[in-house]
């Protein structure tokens, strides 16, 4: 059976190179809600991003649409960078934002544009 934590760390490192150090990572066992990042690494990156059925590129498109609608700005920042790693161009990322304006509303799309501008400038 695959270790979901190891798989999650591997996928995370592939999609956001340089963010996590090599080896096992302690996400801060002493802080508040210390298991939350472990749950995300295992269930989101270890279980969902490794599934067959959608490519990483397609998963990035779906994820961005959901995060824009939720106005999940912290996660959006990382996922705009992940989407680039997964093969989306800046023109395609802009199209995701334009498209989201019709379904999630202009304020959500404008927020996503601001987040994307900052996140993509970091690379």
Automatic annotation (TrEMBL):
GO terms for molecular function: peroxiredoxin activity. It comes from the Bacteria. Transmembrane segments: none annotated. SUPFAM superfamilies: AhpD-like. Residues 42-117 form the Carboxymuconolactone decarboxylase-like domain. PANTHER family: 4-CARBOXYMUCONOLACTONE DECARBOXYLASE FAMILY PROTEIN, CARBOXYMUCONOLACTONE DECARBOXYLASE-LIKE DOMAIN-CONTAINING PROTEIN. This is 4-carboxymuconolactone decarboxylase. It comes from Mycolicibacterium madagascariense.
